[in-house]
């Protein structure tokens, strides 16, 4: 690193260090003022407040917290002017996050009063989180311009509903920044392929609109400065249409840099203007420096400034007219510099990222321009607007197809920490400055770590793997020939998909869902995207009803059976014969005393299994609690086993007579790091250790692999971890 700074030159190195110090200091001061406000003394209390809406209320994505599936809630940013508790009142001007369980009919610029509980927020850029107890009351409407643009957005959203699928969801996101219809799976695929910058409005869209207006206005206005002014006015309207959020404002500032460069001619210093714009934005809002979108906006603008003229010349030399070449050069140049930034942000390097961006580059402009025109058409011309959407839909479908196909390829995943960031920065700098020895050394380090990781995990003779899926359960039993039995799916589809992909599993003869709590079933879609499931076993309890209905819908036509004590199935594996016996639940739903937690009745209906696999034996338990554990032990004479999957993520509620009867050698605790439940319980860990049982836990060891001889391999969450898959 020191060598690279010397290579840059002393003056430039000093300038970079000073800029970093100023930016860090500004950010630290702003964050200190938010996190050390006296209002923190009333966190957890009910308050009334007066605020102005900053961002459009939008439905959040569904999430899993603990065992519970949380439906979407409506959330938005607001600027609080007054907050009052039962004992004190604050006159402030600070951003807050507002959340509502019901729909909120407010738009940016509306002033409102609300009542709710104030909580500490995990967002660094807001003072607090307020969860509304009732609908907010609007006391003053937003300005006329904001009302008009809101009407346009709503009408465009309604029009786009007629375009189904991911392409129909992409169009309003790419045109107006409305990402409400984009599914988590689609966003994940776009991120994996390096196309995430196309899921919403970015600096590239502003540049396309500006280039289109400059080209069209040349037929009306002779003077360049007049054309620049007209284009600037159109862009101001576009800002209100897509909403003046921080991301949009920074994109507009970057576009203003391009317009100034265009107005002053080729002899100006556009990079100096870009530097001034970056510095001004960071000083006004230091949190911009932490936003991935800010880096993408800067990269896109720099790419257009530096590369667009050269790319245009190359395209013209291939026979394209100058106007067409200039137009196409904008998205191509923006993509060229955005790609390495996307790699640095996501920590993923896809071999298809650059080809994918090149393949979709030419269709971004038609979607942006066609969609913008459709949005501006009056209601009387809705049929023409719909026709425009139909015409640009093939372009959107092309982007979706590229994302779907590209997501099938493996990616190189770098650790998302200081080590991974340094690898990316050093690689880019060494390539930029042509320090080839450093580049080769970095590639050697990445290759060596990748080879070491792939050779050590999961081992060529693995029999059982407990996936690292956070606060949830997911176990894989190896049947050989890329086949496996899977027990539970964890809460996260992407983590489940990665686990099966690492294990190279593509066929699941039997999927067991021990019960329908979200931390055991919400990862199901990740399995269905990765492997073919031939049959499924489920619990006799249909609670919680929401998770039960979603799970059965996803399983669709897959043969699904409710299982009970006494059922068994035999199978053949690469290490010999195997058998699964259902040890719990009984053929009826038993009633036990409830314990604290997320639902004892549901936990106690969990499917518990005794599995033999060659010489290996294990006992899996789902989340059964002591009453059900004791009843199981009373019903069946249990054999000793090698592996015991500790119930309920190692909670304090265990029946130690069951553990003593099983007399395991090894205990597995599937648990998420820093979970709010305090799992695993120190009491449980102590009791296991006193019995001489070796304990493995996914929050510390990562995913766990065990072979027939009980040899253990762990996929440790090491700071240096690099993976391919």
UniProtKB/TrEMBL annotation:
<feature type="transmembrane region" description="Helical">
    <location>
        <begin position="327"/>
        <end position="346"/>
    </location>
</feature>
<dbReference type="InterPro" id="IPR004477">
    <property type="entry name" value="ComEC_N"/>
</dbReference>
<dbReference type="InterPro" id="IPR035681">
    <property type="entry name" value="ComA-like_MBL"/>
</dbReference>
<dbReference type="Pfam" id="PF03772">
    <property type="entry name" value="Competence"/>
</dbReference>
<dbReference type="InterPro" id="IPR036866">
    <property type="entry name" value="RibonucZ/Hydroxyglut_hydro"/>
</dbReference>
<protein>
    <submittedName>
        <fullName>Unannotated protein</fullName>
    </submittedName>
</protein>
<dbReference type="Pfam" id="PF00753">
    <property type="entry name" value="Lactamase_B"/>
</dbReference>
<dbReference type="GO" id="GO:0005886">
    <property type="term" value="C:plasma membrane"/>
</dbReference>
<feature type="transmembrane region" description="Helical">
    <location>
        <begin position="228"/>
        <end position="245"/>
    </location>
</feature>
<keyword id="KW-0472">Membrane</keyword>
<feature type="transmembrane region" description="Helical">
    <location>
        <begin position="292"/>
        <end position="315"/>
    </location>
</feature>
<feature type="transmembrane region" description="Helical">
    <location>
        <begin position="384"/>
        <end position="404"/>
    </location>
</feature>
<feature type="transmembrane region" description="Helical">
    <location>
        <begin position="440"/>
        <end position="457"/>
    </location>
</feature>
<feature type="domain" description="ComEC/Rec2-related protein">
    <location>
        <begin position="174"/>
        <end position="436"/>
    </location>
</feature>
<feature type="domain" description="Metallo-beta-lactamase">
    <location>
        <begin position="468"/>
        <end position="543"/>
    </location>
</feature>
<keyword id="KW-0812">Transmembrane</keyword>
<dbReference type="InterPro" id="IPR052159">
    <property type="entry name" value="Competence_DNA_uptake"/>
</dbReference>
<keyword id="KW-1133">Transmembrane helix</keyword>
<dbReference type="InterPro" id="IPR001279">
    <property type="entry name" value="Metallo-B-lactamas"/>
</dbReference>
<feature type="transmembrane region" description="Helical">
    <location>
        <begin position="416"/>
        <end position="433"/>
    </location>
</feature>
<keyword id="KW-1003">Cell membrane</keyword>
<feature type="transmembrane region" description="Helical">
    <location>
        <begin position="358"/>
        <end position="377"/>
    </location>
</feature>
<feature type="transmembrane region" description="Helical">
    <location>
        <begin position="195"/>
        <end position="216"/>
    </location>
</feature>
């Amino acid at each position: 690193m020191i060598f690279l700074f010397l290579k840059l030159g002393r003056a430039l190195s000093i300038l970079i260090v000073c800029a970093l110090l100023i930016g860090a200091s500004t950010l630290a001061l702003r964050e200190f003022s938010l996190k050390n406000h006296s209002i923190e003394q009333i966190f957890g209390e009910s308050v009334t407040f007066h605020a102005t809406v900053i961002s459009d209320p939008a439905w959040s994505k569904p999430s899993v917290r603990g065992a519970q599936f949380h439906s979407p809630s409506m959330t938005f940013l607001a600027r609080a002017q007054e907050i009052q508790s039962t004992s004190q009142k604050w006159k402030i001007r600070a951003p807050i996050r507002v959340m509502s369980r019901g729909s909120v009919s407010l738009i940016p610029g509306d002033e409102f009063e609300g009542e709710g509980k104030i909580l500490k927020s995990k967002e660094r850029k807001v003072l607090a989180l307020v969860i509304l107890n009732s609908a907010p009351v609007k006391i003053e409407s937003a300005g006329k311009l904001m009302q008009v643009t809101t009407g346009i957005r709503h009408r465009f959203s309604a029009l786009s509903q007629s375009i189904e699928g991911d392409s129909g969801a992409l169009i309003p996101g790419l045109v107006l920044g409305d990402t409400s219809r984009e599914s988590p799976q689609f966003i994940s695929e776009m991120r994996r392929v390096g196309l995430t910058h196309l899921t919403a409005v970015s600096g590239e869209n502003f540049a396309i609109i500006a280039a289109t207006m400059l080209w069209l206005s040349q037929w009306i206005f002779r003077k360049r400065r007049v054309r620049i002014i007209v284009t600037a006015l159109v862009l101001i309207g576009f800002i209100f249409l897509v909403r003046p959020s921080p991301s949009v404002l920074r994109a507009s500032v970057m576009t203003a840099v391009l317009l100034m460069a265009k107005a002053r001619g080729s002899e100006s210093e556009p990079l100096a203007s870009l530097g001034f714009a970056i510095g001004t934005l960071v000083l006004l809002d230091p949190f911009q420096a932490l936003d991935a979108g800010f880096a993408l906006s800067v990269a896109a603008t720099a790419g257009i400034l530096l590369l667009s003229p050269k790319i245009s010349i190359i395209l013209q030399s291939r026979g394209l007219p100058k106007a067409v070449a200039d137009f196409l050069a904008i998205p191509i140049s923006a993509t060229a510099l955005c790609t390495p930034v996307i790699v640095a942000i996501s920590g993923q390097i896809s071999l298809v990222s650059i080809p994918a961006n090149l393949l979709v580059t030419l269709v971004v402009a038609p979607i942006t321009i066609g969609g913008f025109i459709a949005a501006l058409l009056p209601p009387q011309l809705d049929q023409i607007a719909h026709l425009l959407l139909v015409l640009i839909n093939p372009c959107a479908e092309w982007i979706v197809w590229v994302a779907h196909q590209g997501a099938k390829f493996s990616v190189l995943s770098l650790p998302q920490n200081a080590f991974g960031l340094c690898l990316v920065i050093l690689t880019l700098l060494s390539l930029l400055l042509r320090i080839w020895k450093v580049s080769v050394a970095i590639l050697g380090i990445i290759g060596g770590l990748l080879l070491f990781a792939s050779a050590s995990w999961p081992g060529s003779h693995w029999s059982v793997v407990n996936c690292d899926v956070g606060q949830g359960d997911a176990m894989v039993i190896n049947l050989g020939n890329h086949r496996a039995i899977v027990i539970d799916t964890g809460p996260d589809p992407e983590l489940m998909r990665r686990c099966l992909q690492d294990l190279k599993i593509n066929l699941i003869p039997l999927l067991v869902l021990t019960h329908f709590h979200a931390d055991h079933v919400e990862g199901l879609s990740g399995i269905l995207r990765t492997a073919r499931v031939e049959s499924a076993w489920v619990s006799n309890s249909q609670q919680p009803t929401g998770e039960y209905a979603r799970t059965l819908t996803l399983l669709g036509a897959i043969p699904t059976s409710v299982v009970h004590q006494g059922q068994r199935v035999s199978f053949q594996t690469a290490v010999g014969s195997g058998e699964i016996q259902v040890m719990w639940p009984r053929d009826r739903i038993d009633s036990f005393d409830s314990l604290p937690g997320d639902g004892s009745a549901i936990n106690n209906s969990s499917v518990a299994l005794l599995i033999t696999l060659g010489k290996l034996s294990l006992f899996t338990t789902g989340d059964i609690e002591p009453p059900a554990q004791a009843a199981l032990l009373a019903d069946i004479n249990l054999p000793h086993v090698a592996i015991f999957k500790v119930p309920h993520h190692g909670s304090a509620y265990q029946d130690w007579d069951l553990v003593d009867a099983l007399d395991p050698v090894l205990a597995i605790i599937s648990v998420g790091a820093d979970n709010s439940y305090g799992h695993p319980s120190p009491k449980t860990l102590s009791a296991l250790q006193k019995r001489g049982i070796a304990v493995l836990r996914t929050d510390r060891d990562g995913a766990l692999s065990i072979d027939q001889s009980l040899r253990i391999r762990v996929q440790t969450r090491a700071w240096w971890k690099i993976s391919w898959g």
